[in-house]
Specification:
Elements: H1 3-12, H2 46-54, H3 64-68, H4 72-85, H5 97-110, H6 114-126, H7 131-138, H8 148-163, H9 168-178, H10 180-202
Helix pairs in contact: 4-10, 5-6, 5-8, 5-10, 8-9, 9-10
Length: 221
């Protein structure tokens, strides 16, 4: 295919629906499936251009990576935090992959982040997170009947997101169940996924066609 034909194809893709899919909104880039086109050196200031040049070239595509590349210094800092927390798989997370995935799913549900949820629900199941626990988060159900640690963790993060504080009793239960250090690490994990999730919300990140949306609209109590 000639370069000219490729350029023309990319130009019309946002208006073309794949079979069985709605057409993309006109402000969505067909490569990143978001409002941000792939970053170029010209998008960055001089300091960031140096960091951009020093990083290995990557193929642009959907997801948080193309968003954070617009600020290489931020991407560098987030990468350091992410590696300490086991992002993106949860391998190496101090409380294990199952708890890692539960924290991520609570975060994705609370900010209605489809891209994160659709990746981490299957990952959670593979890590041993029961569908019954996932559904409590997904459908905003009461935590009655869950294991105590799962119930406490869900209540804790719901309170943080919705009330922006936690009670003394709930804090004490988190520390009793997980310890102070692990509680802080779970909050750091939540904050990491909150940050990139809200960025993807802002740029209207769409799913790639091969990924099924698994997060229904919120129906909070």
């Amino acid at each position: 295919m000639s370069i000219r034909m490729l350029v023309l194809l990319v130009a019309v893709l946002p208006a073309v629906a794949l079979e069985g899919q709605a057409p993309l909104p006109p402000d969505i880039n067909p490569v990143t499936l978001s409002r941000l086109p792939p970053v170029t050196r010209g998008d960055l200031d001089a300091e960031s251009q140096k960091l951009f040049d020093a990083r290995p070239a990557t193929t642009p595509g959907p997801g948080p990576g193309h968003v954070t590349r617009y600020s290489p210094k931020i991407a560098e800092g987030q990468g350091l935090i992410g590696r300490a927390l086991g992002v993106p798989s949860g391998q190496g997370f101090p409380l294990g992959v199952r708890t890692y995935q539960l924290v991520v799913l609570i975060t994705a549900r609370e900010i209605d982040q489809q891209y994160e949820w659709s990746a981490h629900e299957p990952a959670g199941l593979r890590a041993g997170l029961e569908q019954s626990v996932i559904d409590v988060v997904k459908f905003d159900r009461d935590v009655t009947g869950l294991a105590e640690k799962d119930a406490t963790l869900i209540r804790f993060f719901r309170a943080l997101f919705r009330e922006h504080k936690v009670s003394s009793d709930l804090w004490a239960k988190m520390v009793e169940g997980f310890g102070r250090q692990r509680t802080i690490e779970m909050m750091a994990l939540m904050a990491d996924y909150f940050t990139v999730g809200m960025m993807m919300n802002a740029v209207d990140q769409h799913l790639p066609p091969e990924r099924k949306p698994l997060l229904p609209p919120a129906t909070r109590r």
